[in-house]
Amino acid sequence: MLSLCAATALVVGGLGSHKVPFVIGGVVPRLWWAFLFLHVTGFVLLCCAPFARWHQEEADPSLRRSPGDAVLVAVATVPVYLVSLAAVGAGLLLATISSYSVLAPASDGGCRVVVREGSLLLLAAGEVYLLSAGEVRGREVSSYWADDGYMPFSGGTYTLRWDGETALLDVRGVSGQEVSYESVPLHCGRSSLDG
């Protein structure tokens, strides 16, 4: 039950969050990995609990519950499981409309560009983050919009070059799927939004 409640709380707490939590190597761990793990763990433990209880009752008959107690436990457990299942379903649905990528190459000093792409129906948008060498948390430096749900980084219509520790990122659309992105130098070590 605790695992199911934790999965639900994690989904609700993470809804609407588009910030890069952290980067490990070239991977951006996703929040849904954690809540899916918690939900599956809770479900497995919930399925195993009656067998563990039955084994205890066989070993010590004084631990036997009355039929009414078993019904109360089931009545309390089912709503928690259903709410957790709905929360995980909503979280997985939201996770499918966005993706993260660590772009190659990194700068000579180890600075990396991380992007989040999101697409829903005919709209697409995303953010660009910089990750200085040794850091694990991204810093938002730019964003883009695209027509018809086009995701330029997944589509490969971008170029990334480095001038020292300054990223020169050019993002393009394709015919009929234009991308609105201001191509400005992205400086590692200070916010590009600050100029």
Uncertain stretches of 5 or more adjacent residues: 191-195
Overall average pLDDT = 80
Number of helices: 4
- Amino-to-carboxy terminus distance: 50 Å
Q: β content, as a range?
A: 25-35%
Strand order, largest beta sheet: 1-2-3-4-7
Query: Got a strand count?
Result: 8
Biggest beta sheet attributes: 5 strands, antiparallel
Radius of gyration from the alpha-carbon trace, in angstroms: 23 Å
The SS-based structural class is alpha+beta
Order of helices and strands: HHHEEEEHEEEE
Q: What is the number of domains?
A: 2
> How much helix, percentage-wise, in residues?
25-40%
The best one-word shape is: elongated
SSE arrangement:
Layout: H1 2-14, H2 31-59, H3 67-96, E1 98-103, E2 112-120, E3 123-131, E4 139-147, H4 152-155, E5 158-163, E6 166-171, E7 179-180, E8 186-187
Antiparallel strand pairs: 1-2, 2-3, 3-4, 4-7, 5-6, 6-8
Transmembrane segments: 32-52, 72-95
Keywords: Membrane, Transmembrane, Transmembrane helix
How would you describe this protein?
- Keywords: Membrane, Transmembrane, Transmembrane helix.
- The chain crosses the membrane at residues 32-52, 72-95.
- The chain has 195 residues and is an alpha+beta fold.
- It folds into two domains: 1-97; 104-187, no CATH class.
- Helix content is 39%, strand content 25%.
- It has helices at 2-14, 31-59, 67-96, 152-155; strands spanning 98-103, 112-120, 123-131, 139-147, 158-163, 166-171, 179-180, 186-187.
- The strands form two sheets. It has a five-stranded antiparallel β-sheet. A three-stranded antiparallel β-sheet has the order 5-6-8.
- The N and C termini lie far apart (50 Å).
- Residues 191-195 have low confidence and may be disordered.
